[in-house]
Please model this.
Amino acid sequence: MLGLGTFTRVTRELREDLTAARDRDPAARGVGRLEILLTYGGVQALLSHRVAHALHEAGVPLAPRLLANVTRVGTGVEIHPAADIGRALFIDHGEGVVIGETAEIGRDVTLYQGVTLGGTGFARGKRHPSVGDDVVIGSGAKLLGPVAVGDRAKIGANSVVVHDVPANSTVVGNPGHPVRVDGKRPGGPDADWAHLPDPVADALRSLAARVNELEGIVADLTGKRPESGEVHPLRRSRGGDTAGG
Model:
């Protein structure tokens, strides 16, 4: 039911969302809360959702979906009014973000542009992801179906996640593969998606090393050296390191 308590809750959530934007976006350093509210599409979409979600919970017809649709047109962020979003979510840039009806997002989560928390099939009920606390989801990542993402997990840019993600792990690839980062628990939100582990490349390197070893054994037995099959890595012809900013 709508009332003073609902207004107080939405106000508190807005304050926490603004703080999250200032803390996690380097471009927001020195920028006032009012300027963030007026110029950050992700923050505007969140405020709109907080209101639409309150209206949805109160059983108000039409208004929640109408507000969500207007917000989608204005910000490029589509959030279903029924989606359950915890405090201090930060949507960086925001364009192309989609959050489905039964999606659940925990506290202090960071989403980058193009993220989809989508469903699969036409079945009703729980069909969207559940995201834990302190999770970071990189640009263009797709989480599909009722998968569970554990606390403090990181999802690499453009990963496609269709299975549950353990806590404190990093997921990369399509389909997503959970990996560890230097054997340590991932730290707090960052955007260094250029240096994530690549399990496919690691497997290929191991295979190439094994082939070279076997070729050496065959050469010792037969006295014949195999023709050179060296694989040269791709290198940039010009410009600096893309991970350098």
